[in-house]
């Protein structure tokens, strides 16, 4: 499966990376909010004003990925979101409590539905294709990608728009902070969409070679999977690992063992230091890996000496979600 | 030739019964479960009839054998999912049975929900709004949709594959559709697919702001319809592919022969006047099954009772079937609109219609939207030769899905 268009909005300004490059800076704000680009080239400002942040960044990255691949009307639109539209959910809940269930208005409720981002993309494109939204925590993006892969095996020659979006709100920050989520890592958010097809094209970024999800596996099951993914590539080893490891991560030993199982002395970049921590951060990592494979611009000292050919993305969390995505240069 | 996907087990809980048998008995008796709000704490208790599952959370926890703080959504989902596994002969020692004839089967849980743990979150929120450090965290731990599925999966002992879909009112139809695709691809051996939603203040007030709630008992597919009644519940189906069916040795009578998901791309909440999304979903399901419209004997309608849905859906049906309408009815006149659960609940009712050759009537219809006599079923009808039925589920965001069931 080839990524023939890719777009991301993240706390790290990356939306215009193809033309402007990336100035890598570690995220320092506790609430890592996305750096929003100038949307006016891509979408009617009147529409933008009505959209919450998650809808804006989702819709705009989706349109951008389509534009790159010159696809007007995708054959499927698949979206992963762990939290859904939190801003509108919070607004409606607050008014519901404060107004004691009286005098409420529909806008926030309408936009709070989990499938709003995918639906808004379809609405803007007038796209009647298959449309689905996956909401399984830190697997939300990966399950969307797996559906894209399955769809392309079922429907030869088609084009699938697939991505993920999650937003960090003041309410969710307060709550997740109380759960200890941000003890060692800044909070984050972001959106990334990809246009994927079975064949490469002039606009290709990278090939997605494998996607795997595991839920509460034993460590041996996990490492066996990592070895099986890395093993066939002996002639072309994994050049870089984009790792979801956080600062002082309780799972540091797992990340270390996964790295060792993937090969000897593979350089590692911890991507959450750029985008913050959130369940669909692997979509940002997928974008970053594809960007590095397309442009060959991994900052000196972070990656292999030779241009990277294969990048492995691995993330896990305290709930037992593990995922592996292997990207290959094309 | 499409590989067959069989219905190997089913479980249901709704306002018309705590299991499939009770649900079917109520449908046969024409007995709706709608009425004044008794369990949900809301200022609108006297204003809107709803379809509540007739049990407190404590009673549901006893049925489930659960302790601790649990979302009503998780409780309902677990009770229906467990029944589906029991019905399929896949429940042993209080957990899913994974070894069949010495073979370890890969089992997936694909749930769906729109409100998830919102019933707990909305109780937590008043204190939290006063003070961000207040409120007991155990009440928001199940807020996320994926968290309710995790809780259900933990209760069932399923770890191989967990997924949750949230596409509003078409959610569980999409869960069933994905399950079938994963089984055909051989990625899983057994799929437990369905959906669950508890009634919450959030949804009741949300639908109220849209002014589509009926203050009386709803009259879906009637010209005088005024809106919908919300319901709650859960439905789960055990789906198996041909390989697993052979291994289990079950004598399955109903198969999922087609399905399609299309987007209306008209409006965030309203359906298009020409019913494009629903038309494409029904047409796609028929095409996959390789069956002409004339072969369809019955449609379990989405049929919510809103002006907009019933008009759009009947237009789409007219586009597809011309003037050769199949029989149709909407069981939401018994259960209310159970949101993420309705696709799975109505899939179960549709399967029973096929097996028992019976069409359950729409209740309270006086002037049917489709006037041709006998098309909108208003009396329990025993039939012969019913082989194919469609079940429709349409949702916010233009998400339209149709499932096509056939006798094997």
Structure commentary:
- The complex is a heterodimer of chains A (330) and B (408).
- Chain A has 330 residues and is α/β, with parallel strands linked by helices.
- Chain A folds into two domains: 2-197, Peroxisomal Thiolase, Chain A, domain 1 (3-Layer(aba) Sandwich); 206-328, 3-Layer(aba) Sandwich (Peroxisomal Thiolase, Chain A, domain 1), CATH 3.40.47.
- Helix content of chain A is 37%, strand content 20%.
- Chain A is built from twelve helices and ten strands.
- A ten-stranded mixed sheet of chain A has the order 3-2-4-5-1-6-10-9-7-8, with helices on both faces.
- The longest helix of chain A is centred in the first third of the chain and has 17 residues, at 53-69.
- With 408 residues, chain B is an alpha/beta fold.
- Chain B folds into two domains: 5-248, 3-Layer(aba) Sandwich (Peroxisomal Thiolase, Chain A, domain 1); 254-407, Peroxisomal Thiolase, Chain A, domain 1.
- Chain B has twelve helices and 16 strands.
- A ten-stranded mixed sheet of chain B has the order 7-6-8-9-1-10-16-15-11-12, sandwiched between helices. A two-stranded antiparallel ribbon of chain B has the order 2-3. In chain B, strands 4-5 form a two-stranded antiparallel ribbon.
- In chain B, helix 2 (57-64) packs parallel to helix 3 (72-87) and helix 9 (276-289) packs across helix 10 (307-321).
- The two termini of chain B are 15 Å apart.
- At the A-B interface, helix 4, helix 5, helix 6, strand 3 and helix 7 of A face helix 4, helix 5, strand 7, helix 6 and helix 7 of B.
């Amino acid at each position: 499966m080839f990524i023939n268009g890719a777009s991301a909005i993240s706390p790290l300004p990356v939306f215009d990376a193809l033309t402007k490059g990336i100035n890598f800076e570690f995220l320092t704000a506790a609430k890592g909010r996305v750096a929003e680009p100038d949307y006016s080239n891509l979408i009617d400002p009147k529409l933008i004003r009505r959209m919450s942040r998650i809808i804006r960044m989702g819709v705009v990255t989706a349109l951008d990925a389509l534009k790159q691949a010159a696809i007007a009307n995708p054959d499927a639109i698949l979206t992963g979101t762990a939290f859904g539209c939190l801003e509108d959910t919070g607004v409606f809940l607050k008014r519901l409590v404060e107004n004691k269930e009286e005098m409420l208005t529909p806008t926030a409720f309408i936009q709070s539905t989990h499938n709003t981002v995918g639906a808004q993309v379809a609405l803007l494109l007038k796209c009647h294709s298959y449309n689905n939204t996956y909401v399984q925590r830190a697997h939300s993006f990966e399950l969307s990608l797996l559906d894209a892969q399955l769809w392309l095996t079922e429907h030869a020659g088609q084009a699938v728009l697939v991505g993920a979006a999650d937003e960090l709100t003041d309410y969710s920050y307060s709550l997740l902070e109380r759960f200890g989520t941000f003890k060692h890592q800044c909070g984050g958010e972001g959106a990334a969409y990809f246009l994927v097809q079975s064949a490469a094209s002039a606009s290709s970024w990278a090939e997605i070679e494998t996607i795997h999800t595991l839920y509460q596996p034993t460590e041996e099951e996990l490492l066996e999977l990592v070895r099986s993914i890395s093993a066939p590539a002996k002639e072309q080893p994994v050049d870089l690992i984009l790792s979801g490891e956080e600062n002082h991560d309780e799972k540091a030993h797992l990340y270390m063992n996964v790295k060792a199982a993937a090969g000897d002395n593979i350089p590692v970049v911890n991507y959450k230091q750029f985008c913050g921590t959130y369940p669909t951060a692997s979509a940002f990592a997928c974008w970053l890996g594809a960007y590095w494979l397309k442009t060959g611009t991994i900052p000196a000292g972070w990656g292999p000496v030779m241009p990277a050919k294969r990048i492995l993305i691995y993330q896990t969390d305290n709930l037992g979600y593990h995922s592996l995505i292997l990207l290959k240069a094309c | 030739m499409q590989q067959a996907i069989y219905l190997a087990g089913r479980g249901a809980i709704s306002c018309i019964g705590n299991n499939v048998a009770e649900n079917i008995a109520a449908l046969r008796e024409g007995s709706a479960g709608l009425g004044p709000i008794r369990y949900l704490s809301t200022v609108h208790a006297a204003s809107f009839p709803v379809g509540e599952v007739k049990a407190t959370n404590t009673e549901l926890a006893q049925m489930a054998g659960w302790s601790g703080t649990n979302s009503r959504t998780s409780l309902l989902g677990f009770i229906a999912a467990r029944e589906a596994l029991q019905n399929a002969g896949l429940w042993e020692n209080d957990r899913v049975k994974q070894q069949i004839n010495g073979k370890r089967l890969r089992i997936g849980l694909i749930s769906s929900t729109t409100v998830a743990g919102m019933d707990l979150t909305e109780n937590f929120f008043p204190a939290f709004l006063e003070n961000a450090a207040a409120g007991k965290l155990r009440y928001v731990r199940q807020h996320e949709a994926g968290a309710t599925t995790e809780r259900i999966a933990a209760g069932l002992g399923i770890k191989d594959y967990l997924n949750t879909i949230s596409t509003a009112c078409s959610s569980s139809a999409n869960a069933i559709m994905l399950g079938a695709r994963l089984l055909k691809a051989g990625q899983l051996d057994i799929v437990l697919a369905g959906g669950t939603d508890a009634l919450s203040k959030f949804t009741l007030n949300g639908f109220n702001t849209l002014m589509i709630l009926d203050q009386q008992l709803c009259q879906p597919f009637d010209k005088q319809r005024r809106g919908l009644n919300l319901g709650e519940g859960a439905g789960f189906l055990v789906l198996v592919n041909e390989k697993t069916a052979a291994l289990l040795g079950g004598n399955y009578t109903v198969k999922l022969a087609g399905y399609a998901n299309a987007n209306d791309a008209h409006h965030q909440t309203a359906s298009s006047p020409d019913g494009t999304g629903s038309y494409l979903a029904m047409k796609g399901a028929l095409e996959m099954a390789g069956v002409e419209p004339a072969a369809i004997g019955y449609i379990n309608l989405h049929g919510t009772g809103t002006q907009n849905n019933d008009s759009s859906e009947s237009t789409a049906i007219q586009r597809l079937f011309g003037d050769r309408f199949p029989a149709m009815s909407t069981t939401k006149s018994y259960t209310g609109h159970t949101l993420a659960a309705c696709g799975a609940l109505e899939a179960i009712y549709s399967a029973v219609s096929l097996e028992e050759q019976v069409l359950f009537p729409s209740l309270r219809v006086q002037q049917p939207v489709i006037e041709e006599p006998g098309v909108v079923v208003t009396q329990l009808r025993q039939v012969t030769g019913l082989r194919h039925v469609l079940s429709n589920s349409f949702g916010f965001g233009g998400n339209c899905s149709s499932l096509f069931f056939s006798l094997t």
